[in-house]
Structure formats: structure tokens, C-alpha cells
Amino acid sequence: MIDRxxxxxxxxxxxxxxVTEIDWADGHVGKYPxxxxxxxxxxxxxxxxxxxxxxxxxxxxxxKTIEPVGDYALSFEWGDGHATGIYTFRxxxxxxxxxECVPPAEKDxxxxxxxx
Length: 116
Ligand SMILES: [Zn+2]
Ligand SMILES: [Zn+2]
Prior knowledge:
Structural class: alpha+beta
CATH class: Alpha Beta
Helix content: 10-25%
Number of strands: 8
Bound molecules: zinc ion
Order of helices and strands: EEEHHEEEEHE
Strand order of the largest sheet: 1-2-3
Number of helices: 3
Radius of gyration: 13 Å
CATH architecture: 2-Layer Sandwich
């Protein structure tokens, strides 16, 4: 059985938006500031082969396209053409920055994350 926490039902990323929303099957509405999505790109080019994922600032944070990868992940193409990050649904869920997942006082924190 699939874990509803890791099953997206809708992705909203309007042109020029700064935040993408993902609805999850358990009813959670995830908020994903594009700066956070880009900075936590999990690809080897951004992260090397570290077991952890760190925030890497400075990349283009406009989203050109969002594509499904199989039935387990999304990939984002950024304004500068970077598109090698595969964001598994489990990983995406962990990046959520809604008030429930990350209290407002901690919104600017950029902790190192485990690979999941
Ligand atoms: Zn990357
Ligand atoms: Zn959340």
C-alpha cells in the first residue's frame, strides 16, 4: 500500500510564482519556496556524493518546467537550464515549508538534511 504522505495529488506552480504548492494524498498542502527547492537540489552536481544534502544558494530559482519521473519523483527545470535533480516524493515531503512543518521562526533556517 502506498504511503499517502508520499503521494502527490496535485502540483500548483503558476508562472512567475515564488512558491509551488503540492497537495498530498493525506490532505496536507505542501508549500515549497523555489529558493528552498533549488537550494536543496539533490543532484550530484550540486551535492557531490555526500550522504547528506546541504543548502546550496545562488542558483536560478525560476521554474521552467516540472516533470514526473516514473511514479516516484518530480524533476524541475530551472531558468538557467539546470534540470538534473530528481526529487523523490519522500524527499519533497521533507522539504515542505508550510507553517505546520516549519514554524515561522525557523523559516530561514537551512539545515543539512539526510538523503531519503
Ligand atoms: Zn542540482
Ligand atoms: Zn507542510
